[in-house]
Amino acid sequence: MLETKERLAAVDPVWDRIKREGEAAVAAEPLLGGLIHSSLLHHPSLERALAYRMSLKLASGEMSEQILREIGDDAYASDQELVAAARADLMATFERDPACHRYLQPILFFKGYQAVQAYRIGHWLWRQGRRDMAYFVQMRVSEVFGVDIHPAARLGRGVMIDHAHSIVIGETAVVGDDVSMLHSVTLGGTGKEDGDRHPKVGNGVMIGAGAKVLGNIEVGQCSRIAAGSVVLDAVPPNVTVAGVPARVVGRAGCSQPSSSMDQMLMQDGGDGKAG
């Protein structure tokens, strides 16, 4: 099975581009040669590189890099959804973040991408019944990246977290495919209640910096949540909400807010469309 995957990696255009970018980066900045070779060029596939990179970032005196790397390799080898999600997240970051000009940047330098991939390994551990190890990964992701995602939370593919400082996503939260969020976003509960208590975010949603979405509420697909908003009630699909507490202020302004990343508020143009 591993041999088949390595043969596929040999004709993988995404991984091939990453390696070419890595070689060019070493030529331009030789002092980064050790980092780029160990993190990228030494590995036969994207998933093997990610397992290594995550182990290096999360290792501590309490858990060795070798153990974490074995966990990552096992996770990617046994669950192809992890591989697909990592690729979708990479493409989402490249396409949506204007500061991202090469595929290698999120893998090497962007803590939002790195934190989401580490969370995904923690979520895999959670689903395997290895709850304490999953909590350890959550703890280290929070300590290293400033991103606190409960390992039971469910995140879809193509998730992009820009800047990724002070992100909190609770235990029963669900985040759909192709969602973008900026720093200081909270998907939290409203108190000490147990059970299903966190937001359910639809596909294609864009959540602005500092927004707080609280409680077991639905955020409709392709909606926008303006920066600094506090969302306490359900959000319909294809609208923009803003304020404290948040209210609908117009249409979403485009069919895919999470891809356009347009955070400007527009007045409703009378025809029901943001003008």
UniProtKB/TrEMBL annotation:
Residues 14-118 form the Serine acetyltransferase N-terminal domain. Pathway: Amino-acid biosynthesis; L-cysteine biosynthesis; L-cysteine from L-serine: step 1/2. It is an enzyme of class 2 (transferase). The keyword Protease does not apply. Residues 252-275 are annotated as: Disordered. One of its GO terms (biological process) is cysteine biosynthetic process from serine. GO terms for molecular function: serine O-acetyltransferase activity. Transmembrane segments: none annotated. Its EC number is 2.3.1.30. It catalyses: L-serine + acetyl-CoA = O-acetyl-L-serine + CoA. SUPFAM superfamilies: Trimeric LpxA-like enzymes (SSF51161). Belongs to the transferase hexapeptide repeat family. This is Serine acetyltransferase. It comes from Tropicimonas isoalkanivorans.
